[in-house]
Design goal:
- It contains six helices and six strands; from the N terminus they run H-E-H-E-H-E-H-E-H-E-E-H.
- Helices cover 45% and strands 19% of the residues.
- The radius of gyration is 22 Å and the shape is globular.
- The protein is of the alpha/beta class.
- The longest helix is centred in the middle third of the chain and has 17 residues.
- The chain starts with a helix and ends with a helix.
Length: 172
């Protein structure tokens, strides 16, 4: 190889090595992913071996939004013990602003876990999930078996949910 060709090659390598790395894209901690029912199932299957709390909610649902801070607190408190938190927005897919409203709420709330927007008609998710509307919580144990959470009469809902999740976390 001629000396001048070698010089150009070395300079080219030096420039390549010294160029700054491209800036990494920062992930929005409250990102909202649009999924079909199968996508929701995939998220559950990928987290098998952990306890999974799925919060079905909607932006129009006042009790859902009122209780959401408790779900965030549970996530922060129990994630290190194996809790995976997933929120699923059931807002109407045919409402043009519903996705943006849901994303705005999640960002403001600081929901830094998996957030899904279920892109299915109401009758489809009602039939597949077995409930009429939000709020609703499913808890999956480490073996992937789910239980629709329903508090007992006169039991404060979030105390009961916390207790229920802790019981699943203690199971091996």
């Amino acid at each position: 190889m001629k000396w001048w060709a070698w010089s150009f090659l070395c300079v080219g390598l030096a420039v390549t090595v010294t160029l700054p790395a491209p800036a990494q894209e920062t992930k929005d901690p409250a990102q909202l992913q649009v999924v079909k029912y199968g996508g929701l199932k995939d998220v559950i299957h990928k987290n098998r071996g952990k306890v999974i709390l799925v919060d079905f909610w909607a932006d129009y649902c006042i009790p859902c939004k009122k209780g959401f801070p408790h779900v965030i607190d549970m996530h922060k408190k129990y994630a290190r013990d194996g809790l995976v938190t997933v929120s699923v927005s059931l807002d109407p897919i045919d409402d043009p602003g519903s996705r943006e409203n849901a994303a705005r709420f999640l960002k403001k709330a600081g929901a830094d876990f998996t957030n899904l927007y279920l892109d299915e008609p109401v009758d489809v998710w009602q039939k597949k999930l077995g409930f009429a509307g939000p709020p609703c919580y499913f808890v999956f144990n480490r073996q992937g078996q789910w239980t629709k959470f329903e508090p007992r009469d006169n039991e404060p809902i979030y105390e009961a949910l916390d207790k229920f999740v802790v019981e699943r976390l203690r199971e091996k």
